[in-house]
## 1
Amino acid sequence: MKKTKIAFSLVVALAAFLTAACGSGGSESAGGATKKEPIVIGSKNNTENLLQGEMYAQVLEELGVPVERKLNLGGTMVTFEAIKSKQIDMYPEYTGTGILAILKLPLEKDPQKVMEKNREGFKQWDIEWLDPAPLNSTYGFATTKETAAKYNLKTISDLAKHSKELTLSYPQEFDVRDDGLPGLQKQFKDQGGFQFKKQFQVDYSLRYDPLTQGLSDVTVSVGSDGQIAGYELQLLEDDVNFFPVYNVAPIIRKEKLEMYPEAKEPLNKLSALLTDQVMQKLDWQVDGPDKKEVEDVAKEFLKENGLVK
């Protein structure tokens, strides 16, 4: 009887050991092959971020990395909370947003220093920044080519000189932010600049309507907006380096990057391709009259650049 109990105990212990051993390497499928954990990819709820998140997903799938999509989550804090709480593993984030909105550090305009502070600051959440894109989704000013020619507008300094002759339209908060109209008025105070003949606020999603309808001469833009290319507008150069840098980059949980280190190189290659002009055209394919699907626009671009077959 004692031998039977000992033998039974050994069987139970062996079964427990085998169960733990199998579980430590990931779950098993019916055929016995280990099923790898997916990289869960999120994005914010705007066209540009959706496209970037979809491109990340397709690049990783080309590598054979399992992917789960949770795109179009919401604004910055909703999406960041999702990665912080491990509901997602990566998403496209902007360097300026990281340092200002998430880390709440002082404004820094040197792109390299911004990246250094983001990389260091995000270590507290075990989140890593991959290489940033040249794309700079920061504020700017757009006007029609006709208005630009009439007033010789090429730079923000040119706009400051002629502001009293022009009407400005702008989205919410631009008239109260330090990196908006108050800051520009302070910077150009001696020249009397950025005091417009007329100015009015419009909804963010409608910020180009007054310009195209002739109700304003200049509108506040974001550098990668598809409407800039779609409407053939003139984007004024920030010759005084006033606006913060908002380069986009993949941010990813350290645990998943260590699980799939092969993901780093192709994602960095993708980032290197994303310029303001490229993103304007891609955004316009989705938002413009053609209304293409995000998945199709992403796939076509990645194919053209040899990142997927």
## 2
Amino acid sequence: MTHVLLAAGDLAPDRDDYDESFVATRDVLTAADIAFAQLETSFATKGVRLPQARHAVLARPDGADALARAGFDVISMAGNHVLDWGNDAFFETRDNLARAGLHVVGAGANIAEARRPVRITLGDGTRVAILAYSSILPHSYWADERRPGCAPMRAHTVYEQIEHDQPGTPARIHTYPHREDLAAMEADVRAAKAEADLVFVSMHWGIHFVRAAIADYQRDVARAAIAAGADAILGGHAHILKGCEWIDGKPVFHSLCNFATDLRMDPVHAASKSFNEIRVLAEEWEPDFDSLYNFPKASRLSMVARFEIANGRIERTGFLPVYIDRDAVPRFVGRDDPRHAEVVDYMTAITDEAGLNARYVVGDAMVELEQAA
């Protein structure tokens, strides 16, 4: 018996009818044995927006029910929006997800809860554990012994001046994992692996909007997680696709892009300094005031990672190409759709640009990940 785990990217519905976001994907997600995604909003009736929150939307509580009807089983709250609306909204969001029958991972009332894995046993007895962490963290969004928040996997940034006699010239950027967070993550993975056949680790990380680029700390963290026993890494946050790689025979998806993420734009926002500071990071990003999906052009290309599991192991790994149009509704695109080839070609190009070792083979059930020779 073969089971299927699907992993989608970021979720941030912001519309009158949340179910509209999943009209084209519900059947596939519901048919999976486990469907996972990353939440980038709060489902709460009220909240107080924290001053460090950048883009924050307070979504209605029924958004949690929409995710359950969409076919999701496990939702990560480990991200840079987990506390946008304060503690009350955080707990209400978590409770609404649980009320809808969803497993929540990566966040809790304290650090012990935030580090706790979700455990699911498949029909053939395969035991699956899922952990989630965030490297993208406004101040105090991470949990500690007495404070709610998410499980952190912080990183340090060091800027090295290349030409010391040339003030103002570009610097090299070095990033390193936070030592204590890395050790905690490794301990969590080892503990989860001691009780599970397969451990999936979600990482909210990376460099948003910049084509292909992978930060040094991501590779360090991925290697450490896999050495500790992780069987796959599921990356999010970048809002565009990033390449994949294999580390010791285990797949790393550096970014799954968006899934159901609504983002409106108005002329005031489009002219703001904060928007234009990040707009220049992308290859092509033109505001569209009549669209629900105001992201760079590359963000139209997305994916859902797919894992075929049997007898306690991952038999095949790959992805289902997704296209997201101006209505912000994700749609799977089949082999006969030219947008399918567009996703595969983009993944091939950015994987090569980043020097990663995955290659992509179009199969009947999915685009399979293989390791380049």
## 3
Amino acid sequence: MKIKSLETFTNRFVGFTRLTAEDGSQGWGQVSTYNSDLTCEILHRQVAPYALGRNTDDLDDILATSGEKEHKFPGSYLRRAMTGLDTAVWDWRGKQAGKPVVSLLGGTPGKLRAYASSMKRDITPEDEAKRFLKLRDEKGFDAFKWRVGAETGRDKDEWEGRTEKVVPYVAKALGDGIDKLVDANSCYSPNKAIEVGRMLEANGIGHYEEPCPYWEFEQTKQVADALDIDVTGGEQDCEFSAWKTMIGMRAVDIVQPDIMYLGGISRTLHVCKMAEAAGMKVTPHAANMGLVTMCTMHLLKAIRNAGKYLEFSIEGLDYYPWQDGLFLGDPYRIENGHAVITDAPGWGVEINPAWLDKAEYKISEVA
């Protein structure tokens, strides 16, 4: 079925896309969050021209062609824009088949274990532990991730001594039988990262995310080689060349692609297959309640080398006010520590018409 038009509905933070095929059937997707208004413009200028009039079955070639023809513009924004096309095509395919995307990918709907992911650094160890325990008791989470160091912090902490306090305090409060993860967000040099890693190991932490600047694969590998803990990363990487290098040198133990940053489901599946060939697990990055978490749920229930859990952001409207009113109903309910993928066609979500009415609108269509 040929693609007739691509529409975008956006504000600065979120950009939804709507694909319409030549018979009038439609699918919904999303470009990556953050500066989404810029990304939607790139979709119209640098992706749509290669998609309009093409068959939806040609998605992989459309994405490849866009990258080749726009070779002067490699990198994150082009890939984030491609995601708007990719995710809309997958939703369209699911609706045409009357199946959820997970089924198209070879998996099944149902429950998926999640870990509660904290984005906050401006929070005391006491308050972090308190809200984790509340979530454990009310939602049944049995895995939690919190932040250490400062984001791209050049070995500095959010405030002096925070990491040395928050790690043992939260770990002890959670106790046994809970998976414990931390994220350094590219904070440390190798020596400092290893020093912090030893403390993490001593406190039962099993997942150490992005310890060094993410673009310094050799530094991250030094840390991974020195520690027994799982060193993880990859959320920022959007080019296959980077993934080939990272996986080939085993810079990390577990890979964490972000579907929205990478260019969509089709490109993420390619990275998952690269990781599978290397015997590596995939625990994707999914750090907000836009469409990225739903797409990640469908992916994880289908790939053979899925990691142990889904990242599930616990930050509400106080932290991400732009999440308000994106969807009708609650597609992200948690039942006993698990997210639920329904058998509804496509992504199984409905974009809130009231949100769309307030968004900036643009269309690219076949002349």
## 4
Amino acid sequence: MPRKLRVSPIGTPQHVIQRGNNRQACFISEQDFNAYTGWLKDYAKKFHVEIHAWVFMTNHVHLLCTPLHPNSISQMMQALGRQYVRYFNHTYKRTGTLWEGRFKSCLVQSEDYLIQLYRYIELNPVRANMVTDPAEYPWSSYQINALGKTSPLCTPHQVYLSIHLEPEKRLSSYRALFKHHLDSKLIEDIRQATNKGMAIGNDKFKDEIEKLTGNTMKPKKMGRPYKAKN
């Protein structure tokens, strides 16, 4: 069965997830996290991808990013993946694959869902019971987006900037969004859209993407088709 073609409209944000093969660890030491962060920054710049939010877990990675050129996210992830595997195999005297096949991704509607993806990504360590406060986890963008720490990796999205014109009030308002956990239905919708390469957004957004690309952006309804009785 041929692989499903990726849909990557220029200027449309995407949620990207890359998992370790068989859920194996892909980050073991602080040096590993630093190496991956540095190469992500380099390749995002090289292939013209804006990175808005991220979290690096021990066995997978989440990114929220926007491509500025055609196919730029795929180019970035391929170059980053190859570079990091070479480093990881050399460092830990191993051979073979590290990643679980191709990365997964979904398109994100900016107006209604982008900030929810920020929260979904940066709350990952909390959902995994690694920390109680996202500020405690050093390998995410929360300290940048919520606390004002600077990072050359981060490009704020316009939707994030529109939270408030004043930076301090923006940070305060952003932190307030994390007082409550995400709705379980939204979490499931994000996971399903990402794993199936679809879109997270309202029906109008999904219809527009379908018309633009010809690809289905909505999951098929389960069950047998209804048949009218004779």
